[in-house]
């Protein structure tokens, strides 16, 4: 069900941690059986050695004893064979493997490992994290020479040399030598002092090999050369490394390094983003500072003149006027958010994004989502009615889409995008109820670090505040898309981020939001 896409949602990752608990249990059983088997082997060893210790001084005399002679012959003819050809070890291992295979369908795949590695590199980039600190379990940023601790997790889990090697290799295989160099450097220094471990894929030699080549690719020949020399020290007869070494020496003598290291060490812009700098700055700041007093931005208790809200007005915070973005505090209760999250779990699938006439999964949206109809759970209908009370909008299907519940994964994000359709052939029009006029997005969880909603052109970054809801108009009153609504879900640095989207379409709102020919309205 969640095959190959586990990394795209923290919910799926939680489920896989249950598989590991089961595996620990299987391994314990295996260790117990193997320990018992080895104890039996040891007992036999002691028995036979003691026998020989006993008869050592009087060998000839002892062999004359028919009982002694018989036991010797029996041992050599049968007992030793039973020990040496025992199938117990194989049976224990097979039991372990059968148990492991029973869980295989719920284990992460190679895509998950690669996706998780890419998630780490995304966090490194967007939050300008210090890789050396990150691999030690610390979330730190370097700003103008100062180290800033972005978040202090309650448990610090450092990465191993092999972990770093894997991240580096994912970058290396994608020909992203900028990240490869940084992660392989960590791998080399962490592998340095440690011994080989059963569970590891990589080794110091392999890390050196990949790092040398990555440096070569970034134009840093002298580092490539010195790493190759270090590698030869460990593996003197490696022909390929010897050849590389010659090549690097030649390159250096022909072309002494004028531009020194790092010249080609630029971050790759894989998913090209024109607004990348603004996006990342907004993600890094919690709610960008409004320095000038703006009387148009205010807070109030809001009822929208709906009798249903008279006794319980909602705290409204106007965050931006153009585009109009408001935050409704405590829009849902914690128990309601919980019910919505729980109802969504069975339906969670990899999120898609509109691409031409189709909807496909993409690296620029890393999450899982589920669509909840009114009938899924009483709370869904209740929340829909509350949206109508607050906004006056008709959210009945197909004037409103079903509630989309989203759970983000490792470094989960949604890069700058519009919620409304920007082309006539968009799949959003299949509901035949016009374009997405407004977005009502509920934060179903808080996030420890990262995961804000950033409005690129409005210079606004809204942290995920549990139970609150964000509302904005995507379209001008004349039906044109409002380019200023470009927004993004920043990568989740730490936490389990859940949101629910209710998208309201143009049709059905003719009397709630009247048209205007003024393009600025
Ligand atoms: O998660 C967020 O903060 C934004 C999500 C979003 O923009 C979307 O789902 O369309
Ligand atoms: Fe959006």
Strand and helix map with partners:
Elements lengths: L9 H46 L3 H5 L2 H19 L3 H16 L6 H17 L4 H4 L4 E5 L2 E6 L9 H13 L3 H16 L11 H14 L3 H14 L4 H16 L21 H9 L14 E4 L4 H4 L3 E7 L4 E5 L4 H11 L4 E2 L2 E3 L2 E3 L6 E6 L5 H14 L11 E6 L5 E4 L18 E8 L5 E2 L2 E3 L4 E3 L6 E5 L13 E3 L2 E3 L3 E8 L16
Antiparallel strand pairs: 1-2, 3-4, 4-5, 5-16, 6-9, 7-8, 9-10, 10-19, 11-17, 12-16, 12-19, 13-18, 14-15, 14-17
Descriptive overview:
- By secondary structure, the protein is α+β, with helices and mostly antiparallel strands.
- The chain is 42% helix and 17% strand.
- The protein is built from 15 helices and 19 strands.
- The chain has a nine-stranded antiparallel β-sheet, with helices on one face. It has a four-stranded antiparallel β-sheet with strand order 11-17-14-15, with helices on one face.
- A hairpin with a 2-residue loop joins strand 1 (139-143) and strand 2 (146-151).
- Helix 1 packs antiparallel against helix 4 and helix 7 packs parallel to helix 9.
Tell me briefly what this model is.
The chain is an alpha+beta fold. The chain contains 15 helices and 19 strands. Bound molecules: 2-oxoglutaric acid (AKG) and fe (ii) ion.
């Amino acid at each position: 069900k969640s095959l190959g896409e586990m990394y795209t949602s923290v919910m799926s990752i939680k489920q896989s941690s249950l598989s590991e608990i089961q595996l620990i249990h299987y391994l314990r059983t295996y260790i117990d059986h193997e320990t018992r088997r080895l104890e039996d082997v040891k007992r036999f060893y002691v028995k036979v050695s003691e026998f020989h210790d006993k008869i050592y001084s009087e060998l000839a005399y002892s062999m004359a004893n028919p009982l002694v002679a018989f036991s010797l012959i029996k041992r050599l003819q049968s007992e030793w064979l039973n020990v040496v050809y025992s199938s117990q070890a194989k049976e224990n291992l097979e039991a372990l493997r059968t148990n492991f295979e029973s869980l295989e369908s719920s284990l992460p795949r190679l895509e998950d490992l690669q996706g998780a590695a890419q998630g780490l590199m995304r966090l490194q980039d967007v939050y300008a994290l210090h890789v050396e600190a990150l691999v030690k379990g610390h979330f730190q940023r370097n700003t103008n020479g100062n180290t800033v601790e972005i978040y202090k997790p309650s448990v610090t889990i450092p990465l191993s040399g092999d972990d770093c090697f894997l991240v580096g290799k994912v970058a290396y295989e994608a020909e992203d030598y900028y990240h490869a160099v940084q992660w392989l450097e960590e791998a080399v220094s962490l592998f340095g002092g440690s011994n080989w471990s059963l569970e590891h894929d990589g080794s110091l030699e392999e890390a050196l090999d990949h790092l040398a080549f990555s440096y070569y690719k970034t134009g840093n020949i002298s580092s490539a050369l010195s790493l190759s020399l270090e590698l030869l020290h460990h593996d003197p007869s490696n022909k390929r490394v010897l050849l590389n070494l010659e090549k690097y020496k030649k390159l250096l003598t022909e072309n002494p390094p004028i531009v020194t290291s790092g010249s080609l060490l630029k971050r790759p812009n894989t998913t090209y983003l024109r607004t990348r700098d603004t996006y990342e700055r907004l993600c890094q700041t919690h709610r960008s500072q409004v320095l000038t007093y703006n009387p148009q931005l205010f807070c109030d208790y809001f009822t929208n003149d709906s009798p249903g809200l008279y006794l319980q007005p909602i705290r409204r915070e106007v965050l931006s006027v153009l585009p109009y973005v408001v935050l409704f505090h405590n829009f849902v209760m914690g128990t309601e958010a919980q019910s919505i999250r729980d109802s969504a779990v069975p339906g969670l699938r990899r999120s898609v994004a509109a691409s031409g006439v189709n909807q496909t999964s993409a690296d620029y949206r890393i999450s899982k989502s589920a669509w909840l109809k009114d009938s899924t759970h009483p709370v869904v209908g209740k929340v829909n009615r509350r949206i109508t009370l607050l906004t006056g909008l008709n959210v009945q299907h197909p004037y409103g889409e079903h509630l989309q519940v989203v759970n983000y994964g490792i470094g989960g994000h949604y890069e700058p995008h519009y919620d409304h359709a920007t082309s006539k052939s968009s799949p959003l029009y299949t509901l035949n109820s016009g374009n997405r006029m407004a977005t009502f997005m509920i934060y179903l969880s808080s996030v420890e670090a990262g995961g804000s909603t950033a409005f690129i052109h409005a210079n606004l970054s809204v942290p995920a505040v549990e139970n609150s809801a964000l509302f904005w108009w995507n379209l001008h009153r004349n039906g044109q898309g409002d380019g200023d609504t470009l927004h993004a879900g920043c990568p989740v640095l730490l936490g389990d981020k859940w949101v629910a989207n209710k998208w309201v379409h143009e049709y059905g709102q003719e009397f709630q939001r009247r048209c205007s020919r003024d393009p600025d309205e």
